[in-house]
Structure formats: structure tokens, C-alpha cells
Amino acid sequence: MATLPPPPSGINLDDDRRASIMVTSIVTWCLAVLVVGLRIVSRRLKNIDLWIDDWLIIAALIPSCAHVFGMGVYAVSRGLGRHVWAGPPDARYAWAVGLFIAELGYFVTIACVKWSILAFYYRSFKIRSSVKLPIFTLAVIVLMWAVGVILVTILQCQPTNAWWERFNPTHPLQPDQYKCTVDSVKFFYGNAIPTIVTDILILVLPLPYITKLQLPRGQKWALAGIFLVGLFVTIVSIVRLHYLLQGNLTSPDITWNFVNIALWSVVEGNTAIFCACLPFLRPILSKFTFGIFSLSSLPSKKQPSSGTRGTLRMSYYQKDGPRPWQGDSRFVTTTSHSRAYSVTHTRETDEHPFAQLTDDGSEHSIPIKERQDDSQIELGNVSPVRGPVEPNGIVVTREFHLQHQEVQIQDV
């Protein structure tokens, strides 16, 4: 059995942080699963097929689950979170096995999340050729980082299982039976610092393009804020690096000294998934908000009054019912002249979500002189109702419905 030196004086062998590790690991992973599910629901609400960025974030849940299992379940159940002298005999062995699994899960999770965000950038801004090169460059950098750290993890000891078998409580490998040439402390620094640097680069990448969008300043700040939510993940990475710098990873009491590193590593991976999904949750939040306020926002029906103008009522339909169009003075016609306008219904797709943004991100109406490529509806002279409406008379109104990318004109 591998022997341990006697415990140093001044430590409390009753210290126990197992519950905090397990609860933090499971809760943050469940939150990640929840937001990924909400992201998928939001895509379905908009009738949008899942794209590469969605599949990458879904794939990230698998290695993150392995990470949680390795550190938050297996290693904790075998002594991680307690002083090594108070844990079971195989505590260090279980820590080494759990760490090997967790490292691989952590690296793949972070890589998938970064690729997902970059794929989202490409899908959003690909009409701009200037953004393609930095996106592909960062994607290649992340790929090289992921391949490098995974290979180092697998090959840090020869044979590979020597990483944990040297701590085997009953039949440990002897020093002449294996070779571990990688400095674990330097390796942790080497994978943490590139993660932080690429996080920052990915965060600032879309900001120059957001500033060029034709949006009010307040909306630009709001949109930039959505992207900068990922700054929280960078902060978590920095906190993790701080504990890496402080931790004594060469001490025999590794099951206690590694607790903070294990905690923040799990939090980093799961919050990365969480934050990567936040920009996609607007449709489902809007649906809930619209469901609450739709009744109060619907206009009441009124009889047409006498006058010299006819008006047009426009609405578009969603799955949960009609949404009123609040009207536009440009669509008011008179008997003296008529105007031609372009009514645009944006297809529910994310091919170029930032090519042109409006308040609701879906429907907008603009004059023909601004958009010559849209289908046009000629609003001819509308005969006004002269005088009071007769009880048995016939009143002609026109109502436009925008549905399934088609404009239907109905004469009632």
C-alpha cells in the first residue's frame, strides 16, 4: 500500500467540502441542460432548423457531463473534498482517475462552446467578408489548443494508466515502471492562459460590426451587452487560474488542496454553455411576454366614421394568434393621390440575423425607394365614405394579412 507522511499539525481532519463540490457540479450542469433545451424550443418557435452552432452546444453537454461525473461524483464519493488522511485508502487513486476524465471533458466542452459561438458569428455576419478571416483564425487556434492539451493529458505518463496506477493503494506502480515527464502545475497554467486569451478575443470580435448596425444607440448597447454576457465566463476562468496559482499540487493532501480548482473548473464549463445560449432565448421570452400582454394590446373594433380618408388595418399572424400592427401614416390613402409601398415579411431564419435588424426582428414596412428588391403592393385610390353609413349599405374595407411569407389582400 502506498504510504502517506503523517498529517501536519494544525489541520482539522473533520473538514469536509464534498457536499459543496457535488451540489455545485450537478446544479450548474442541470442549468446548462435547461438553457440548451430552451434554446432548442426557441428555435422551434421561430420555425428555424438547428444549425452547426446549435449542434455544437448540444454536443458540449456530453463532455461536460463526463467532467461533472469525474470530479463531482466519482472523485467526491471516494474522498475528494476531505483531507487525504481522513479519506478512504484509495482517495488519491480516485482523484487521479476523476481528474483524467474531468480534464478530457473540460477541454472538449470549452472547445465545443467556443466553436459554437464562432459558428454563430459566421452565420450572423457572413455577408461581411472582413469577418470571415478572424472567425476562421480563432477556430483554428481553438482546434490547435484542444488537440494539444488532449494529447498532453493522454501522454503525460507512459504508460497512460500510470497517471492513476501510481496511487493504487494495494499494487502501486514502482518508479522504474513508469515515466511521467509533464509538470502538472505548468500544464495547468498552459491550458488556462490560452483559454482566457481566446475568450477575450471571441468577446471583442463582433463589437466593431455591432457599432456599424443601423440601430438606435440604446439597442446597440443592449445587443453588445448580450454578447458581453460571456465576460462572466472569462471572469470564472481568471478565478480558476488564481486558485491554480495558489494551490499546492505537489502536496500529499491533494484531495483537499484541489477542491477550489475542481469547483471552478466545473463552474467554468457549465456556465460557458449557459452564457452561450442566452442570446437565443429571446423568442421564448417574447412569447411569454406577448401571451401576458396580448389581450390588452389588441385594438377594439370600431365602426368606420365619415370623413375624407380611408385607412388600412394590417396585422400578421403567429401560431398563438394575431398580433396587431400599430399602423403607419404612410399607409393612409386619399382620393387625390396614391402611393406605392413595399411590405416586407422577413422569413424566420437566422441566415443573416444582423443584416438588418428591427425592433421585433421579424416584420417591418419601408418605402419602395429604400428597398427596391421587395414585392410591392400598389395602394390605389380608396373611395372615402361620404356622410353617415346607411344601415343596409355596403362598406368596403381592405385588410392585409402577412402570413407564411405571403401577402394576401382580402376585400370584405
TrEMBL record:
Organism domain of life: Eukaryota
UniProt xrefs under InterPro entries: Rhodopsin_dom_fungi (IPR049326), SAT4-like (IPR052337)
Annotated localization: Membrane
Key words of the record: Membrane, Transmembrane, Transmembrane helix
TM segment ranges: 20-42, 54-75, 95-121, 133-155, 187-209, 221-241, 261-281
Annotated Rhodopsin domain residues: 38-287
Entry membrane topology: Multi-pass membrane protein
GO CC terms in record: membrane
The family this protein is said to belong to: Belongs to the SAT4 family.
This protein's name: Satratoxin biosynthesis SC1 cluster protein 4
Lineage start: Eukaryota, Fungi, Dikarya, Ascomycota, Pezizomycotina
